[in-house]
């Protein structure tokens, strides 16, 4: 058996060689880096390294959990993640379903291209566009508001608008790109199923309920479970470009706090403890969501 497997690998050696860069990436940046998590239990000194730094046990976890703004950070992170699951996650599904109904290929490709383009813009560029649109002095939206006789609105300085800005910008940037996955899932549904449904007199809604939705359900559940597993990872760049001290009340999250304490203040052990907390919490949520999904829909990751 071992010899036959070696011969099999040698026969397809080119394919196995193509796997090497990917495997090295995961080994170096995903698995080896896990060893660095030990500094969460140390008073890490960058000059001593993690081999000679003093062990302090759960000191940094206790400090983080006792931080006066811990509840605010956790709540902001969870509520924005909840909004993303409720509003951002379904957006590409709806878009894919709408694009799937288009029969004019030229128009369909044009719409797809226009909707894909924002994905290739960095969050810094999008932050600049947001300022140009919502600035109280030069913003296009506020110029229209002033033209109508009202006072300009400080969108970027108002805590109440922050989460809406984050969610709407997420939808605009990634909706078109993420729709590709669901369009691929839709293309895998056999056309004969729709033809049989039409013969039986099923309308568009019945076809969606009994053919389209079951056809894309495995893809939807897989991506939803992965999203739940990263519920505490909002993405630093997007939050940071729109965040300012005035909007900390509703916009300061675990990622931005980690940046201030880890990069700016050099509290590496504290921020590693926060990262470890996020990883463990995300893993537990993933296990719970996976079991729930398996019991409710029969779909799961493992």
Automatic annotation (TrEMBL):
Protein keywords: Cell membrane, Membrane, Transmembrane, Transmembrane helix, Transport
Bilayer topology annotation: Multi-pass membrane protein
Sequence intervals crossing the membrane: 14-41, 73-99, 111-134, 177-196, 208-226, 268-289
Ranges where the ABC transmembrane type-1 domain occurs: 74-289
Family matches, as Pfam families: BPD_transp_1 (PF00528)
Chief subcellular location: membrane
Superkingdom of source: Bacteria
Cellular localisation: Cell membrane
CDD domains (alphabetical): TM_PBP2 (cd06261)
Family indicated by similarity: Belongs to the binding-protein-dependent transport system permease family.
Protein name in the entry: ABC transporter permease
Organism, as annotated: Cohnella suwonensis
């Amino acid at each position: 058996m071992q010899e036959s497997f070696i011969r099999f690998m040698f026969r397809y050696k080119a394919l196995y060689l193509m796997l090497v860069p990917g495997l090295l990436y995961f080994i170096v940046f995903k698995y080896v880096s896990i060893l660095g998590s030990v500094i969460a239990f140390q008073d890490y000194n960058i000059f001593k390294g993690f081999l000679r730094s003093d062990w302090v046990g759960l000191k940094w976890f206790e400090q983080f959990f006792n931080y006066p703004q811990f509840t605010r950070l956790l709540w902001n992170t969870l509520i924005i993640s909840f909004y993303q699951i409720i509003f951002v996650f379904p957006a590409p599904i709806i878009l894919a379903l709408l694009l799937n109904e288009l029969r004019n290929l030229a128009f369909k490709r044009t719409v797809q291209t226009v909707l894909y383009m924002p994905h290739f813009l960095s969050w810094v560029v999008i932050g600049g566009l947001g300022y140009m649109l919502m600035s109280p002095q030069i913003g296009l939206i506020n110029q229209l508001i002033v033209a109508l006789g009202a006072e300009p609105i400080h969108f970027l300085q108002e805590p109440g608008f922050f989460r809406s800005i984050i969610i709407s910008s997420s939808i605009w940037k990634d909706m078109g790109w993420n729709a590709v996955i669901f369009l691929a899932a839709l293309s895998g549904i056999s056309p004969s199923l729709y033809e049989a449904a039409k013969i039986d007199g099923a309308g568009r809604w019945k076809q969606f309920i009994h053919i389209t939705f079951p056809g894309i359900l495995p893809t939807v559940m897989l991506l939803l479970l992965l999203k739940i597993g990263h519920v505490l990872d909002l993405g630093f760049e997007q939050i940071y470009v729109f965040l300012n001290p005035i909007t900390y009340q509703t916009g300061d999250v675990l990622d931005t706090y980690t940046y201030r304490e880890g990069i700016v203040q050099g509290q590496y052990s504290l921020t590693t403890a926060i990262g470890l907390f996020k990883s463990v919490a995300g893993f537990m949520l993933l296990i719970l969501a996976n079991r729930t999904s398996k019991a409710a829909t029969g779909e799961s990751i493992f």
